[in-house]
Amino acid sequence: QVQLAESGGGLVQTGGSLRLSCAPSGRTFSIYVMAWFRQAPGKEREFVAAINWTGGSTDYADSVKGRFTISRDNAKNMVNLQMNSLKPEDTAVYFCAATGSVYYTNRHVGKYDYWGQGTQVTVSS
Question: Average pLDDT, stretch 43-63?
Answer without folding.
Answer: 94
